[in-house]
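Give me the fold.
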Amino acid sequence: MMILPEPLDKLMQAFGKLPGLGRRSAQRAVLHLLTDKSAMEIFCQLLQEAQEKIEVCACCGNISSQNPCHICADEKRQLKSICVIEGVADLWAMEKAQAFEGRYFILGGVMNMMAGVTAEKLNIPKLVEQVKQNNIEEVILALSASVDGQATAQYIAESLEGVDVNVTTLAKGIPMGADVDYMDEGTLSLALRGRQKF
């Protein structure tokens, strides 16, 4: 059995906890950094710089080097609609699609009572307050199609009852370029229920 030095073992364990990195990938990344001292220096400097300069936008929850973030500060953005998403990666995907010109609200996940993730931890009361204060006309719920995602969407919709706002959700169904016979029953069912005039 190989015994690793404690600092090396701790570093590999820390890397292994990052999304998308397992034990093997973490080991390769750490060994690369340890054998290439200049890469290690640059990596450490960039981590330090990110820690010092990146902050969370007080308006939407995006990460940015300015507060409010560049999206919330952009006067060209449409002010009457908010797209509610789970995380920053979702915001990046939406922006890459260049299909939405409004503002965002990042929940930071979805409700999960078993894990102790409540509406308050996701800032849902703050979202409701923003909708009321800014006279938002449409709240787009762009949450995952998971059970927790849909429960969170339902909770938000119920929280906005009595507020003069149109609550919508993203269409769900068959992705572009996919064959019907490869779709699961849940996806086909959603696609049929969400069908539109051709």
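Strands lie at 55-56, 63-64, 81-85, 103-106, 138-141, 166-169.
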